[in-house]
């Protein structure tokens, strides 16, 4: 995720998305997800965030494709 050839694309897509519009705050910790995305977009690497970042980037990318 951090050094991937897709990193620039994932960062641009994730920077635009409002997770509040996708996930219900009653079921998800939106503030936590937003902080993970912000850190990624800002270039802060945290290995423990890779799995959630990959899943978010994939979901958001699929939504933008169609």
List keywords for this structure.
single chain; 66 residues; 3 helices; globular
Structural notes for this entry:
The protein has three helices and no strands. With 66 residues, the chain is mostly helical. It has one domain. The relative contact order is 0.21.
Distance between the termini: 23 Å
Cα shape = globular
Structural class: mainly alpha
Largest sheet: none
> What ranges have pLDDT less than 50 throughout 5 or more consecutive residues?
none
Give the strand tally: 0
How do the strands and helices of this protein lay out in sequence?
Elements: H1 7-16, H2 30-41, H3 50-65
Task: Write a compact overview of the structure shown.
The protein is built from three helices and no strands. It has 66 residues and is mainly α. The chain has one domain.
């Amino acid at each position: 995720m951090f050094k991937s050839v897709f990193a620039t694309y994932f960062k641009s897509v994730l920077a635009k998305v409002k997770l509040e519009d996708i996930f219900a705050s009653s079921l998800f910790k939106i503030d936590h997800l937003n902080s993970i995305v912000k850190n990624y977009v800002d270039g802060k690497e945290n290995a423990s965030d890779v799995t959630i970042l990959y899943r978010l980037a994939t979901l958001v990318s699929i939504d933008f494709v169609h």
